[in-house]
Design brief:
Blueprint: H1 8-18, H2 21-26, H3 36-54, H4 58-64, E1 67-69, E2 74-76, H5 81-90, H6 109-122, H7 124-143, H8 146-158, E3 161-166, E4 182-185, E5 191-201, E6 210-217, E7 230-235, E8 237-239, E9 245-248, E10 251-256, E11 267-280, H9 286-322, H10 346-378, H11 382-418, H12 429-437, H13 446-460, H14 464-480, H15 487-513, H16 516-546, H17 552-569, H18 572-582
Length: 591
């Protein structure tokens, strides 16, 4: 069985020392009660739940998988999953960050990000069930009618019901403009929803008494393409406006997918056969509601990447310290032993430091983005809310794209450290590799994140978030160019930031002549953006470490990892810059 210990010390370092979250939250509306004592108590309890309840189910859930009964169209989750969810709901975790007026606890999003990381490190497959409920909650909070909020939100936030996002169809994939699911109006204001959705996480399971599906569909008068999409709420069991449960609705799982990883998560084909549903928001404006839950889900999936990387690091580091294999090239380090530990070998240290650089830097990035969400929703200053929203919107595709791609590298390196033992199921590394593969696809592939970043957030929105971020990094560099603890990092960070800005301008100019240049540059641009962003996170971490209560060894570890990052990972931006400058002409059509 693989180990998992919640990294509370590093979480608190990122939260309090690097980001100063305690002071930020205290000045926000309703933040007077969000004290460090409260936040720490929640983190401690989250660690206990995830270490003791969810982590032990990770391997067994993968081995057993979900069971589909064709006769009843029902799904049974792996042994222990349902009981774990009962404890999760009774513990109040489902409503941790939800609004108080609907029964939530109203705690900060940045705290929710930390607890989510623990859940996904402990058991990624299990964590997907509540993730979809959070997406449904966000959409209903922002776009639902008053009766929909009253009827659906409270049981979702209590954890008695769960939610899904039903977007993808067999013929459409990521092109939502091609979807065919239709919704025909009834006299009472409801709609009859008919169609098939695929890849629906948590579409059917045994956790809750009802499942609330948020479904994209077309009304009879819908215009073609993405402009004609509406969103509807379609419950598994019909729900009266007083919240009472009625008969089974005409929606059912037609099958569950047999997947490469996350086998404990029920990924369903969902069939709607004139199922009763209710319109959320205005007709033909479903994409607005979809992006509300999509943005939150994309950051959450980025955190999944961080979480899997953290668990892979813990296990590969533990193994490398204990496994005796060959001698150090400079001579025996443990002469009384038959061999030296793996950590004496430079390339093993490279693999471990790569994981640590992505995990600890990525934790700061994820928490920083989540903190912008708190500012956007709670700051008393409208301008501060506006800027935080623009910055968050800009950072989401970077966090989702880079942290999920980094998880591919981290889990691969973890398996490599185990050698042949890593390929054997009993050591758990191969599960991490398999589980991590889906997160680059969830909520849009890496290419889709890249096009969202470059095409929409930078070009279409005139780089509002980018300007805020580049300005922040430049101000940091200016303020600390002579600060002894970080001055070695300031020069490279300033140069990388300038490269980022100059390259953005160059892409904009080339795209004016040929729009295809955006598609050719997008993925490399996302990687370059992500590497510079993490460089900033690491420079801030080194600065924060000097004034923190970390031990001398921990402070040195932060500096060593930052040095590694700046020396061996940040230079990757030059490869991506060269690829961007090569242009679309180097991508000929394939015959």
């Amino acid at each position: 069985m693989t180990i998992y210990k919640a990294p509370l010390d590093d979480m608190r370092f990122a939260l309090y020392d690097v980001l100063g979250a305690e002071a930020v939250l205290a000045r926000l509306e309703g933040g007077e009660g969000h004290t460090r004592d409260l936040l720490d108590a929640v983190l401690d309890e989250a660690a206990r739940f995830n270490e003791q309840v969810l982590a032990p189910l990770n391997a067994s859930g993968d081995q057993e998988g979900c069971h589909y009964d064709k006769a009843t169209a029902s799904v049974t989750t792996p042994k222990g999953f349902k009981e774990a969810y009962r404890q999760y709901a009774e513990g109040g975790w489902a409503g941790l960050t939800a609004h108080e007026k609907f029964g939530g606890q109203g705690l900060p999003a940045v705290l929710g990000a930390m607890t989510k990381e623990m859940i996904d490190s402990a058991n990624l497959a299990w964590g997907i069930y509540p993730l979809l409920s959070h997406g449904a909650t966000d959409a209903l909070e922002h776009h639902g009618d008053a009766w929909q909020q009253e009827t659906f939100l409270k049981p979702l936030i209590e954890g008695r019901w769960t939610g899904t996002m039903c977007l993808t169809e067999p013929q459409a994939g990521s092109d939502l403009g091609l979807l065919k699911t239709r919704a025909e109006p009834n006299e009472d204001g409801s709609y009859r929803v008919t169609g098939t959705k695929i890849f629906i996480s948590a579409g059917e399971h045994d956790f809750a008494e009802n499942i609330i599906h948020l479904v994209l569909a077309r009304l009879p008068d819908a215009p073609a393409g993405s402009r004609g999409i509406s969103m509807l709420v379609v419950p598994k069991f019909k729900v009266g406006k007083d919240g009472s449960l009625g008969e089974r609705n005409a929606v059912a799982a037609g099958a569950i997918e047999h997947k490469m990883g996350i086998r404990g998560s029920a990924t369903c084909v969902m069939n709607f056969d004139e199922a009763e549903g209710w319109l959320i928001g205005p007709a033909h404006k479903g994409l607005v509601a979809m992006f509300t839950m999509m943005n939150a889900a994309r950051l959450a999936v980025g955190i999944q990447g961080l979480a899997v990387s953290e668990r892979a690091l813990q296990n590969s580091l533990n193994y490398a310290r204990e496994r005796l294999q060959m001698r150090a090239l400079s001579g025996a380090k443990l002469p009384d032993k038959p061999a030296d530990p793996l950590t004496v070998h430079p390339d093993v240290r490279r693999m471990l430091l790569t994981q640590r650089a992505f995990v600890e830097g990525g934790r700061v990035l994820a928490a920083y983005a989540a903190l912008q969400s708190d500012i956007e929703s709670r700051d008393a200053d409208p301008q501060a809310r506006k800027e935080a929203g623009e910055l968050l919107s800009f950072l989401i595709p970077i966090a989702k794209g880079l942290l999920t791609e980094a998880a591919q590298e981290c889990t691969k390196e973890a398996l490599q450290i185990f050698g042949g033992h890593g390929y054997i199921a009993e050591h758990g590394m191969e599960q991490f590799v398999r589980d991590a593969r889906i997160i680059t696809l969830y909520e849009g592939t890496t290419q889709i994140q890249a096009l969202d970043l470059l095409g929409r957030k930078v070009m279409q929105l005139q780089g509002a978030g980018l300007k805020h971020f580049l300005g922040e990094i430049s101000a940091f560099c200016q303020a600390h160019q002579t600060t002894e603890s970080v001055k070695a990092f300031i020069g490279p960070l300033a140069v990388a930031t300038k490269t980022w800005g100059d390259l953005t301008q160059a892409i904009a100019q080339s795209a004016q002549a040929n729009p295809e240049e955006l598609g050719a540059a997008a993925v490399d641009y996302l990687y370059l953006s992500g590497y510079v962003t993490l460089a900033y996170c690491w420079a801030r971490s080194v600065l924060a470490a000097e004034g923190s209560h970390l031990s001398a060894d921990a402070k040195q570890a932060k500096r060593d990892t930052a040095t590694f990052y700046f020396s061996r990972i940040l230079p990757r931006i030059h490869v991506h810059k060269a690829a961007i400058e090569a242009g679309v002409a180097t991508l000929p059509e394939l015959l």
